[in-house]
Amino acid sequence: MTRRLVVVSAGLSAPSSTRLLADQLADAVTAAVTARGEALTVDTIEVRDLASDLVTTLTAGDSPRRR
């Protein structure tokens, strides 16, 4: 069974200290899980990259990705 870890980072700079910490935590979790012989998939979500779409959706009520 492959486990899944989703890392969410909301720092403003690139790379942010939040993202660097998130990467370190993901690496530690990956090491622990693989040491047990299990597989792990890590997905990272950068809120900063989604900010424009989030604001548009909240203010206009429409997702720019649907257009």
TrEMBL record:
It comes from Arsenicicoccus piscis. This is NADPH-dependent FMN reductase-like domain-containing protein.
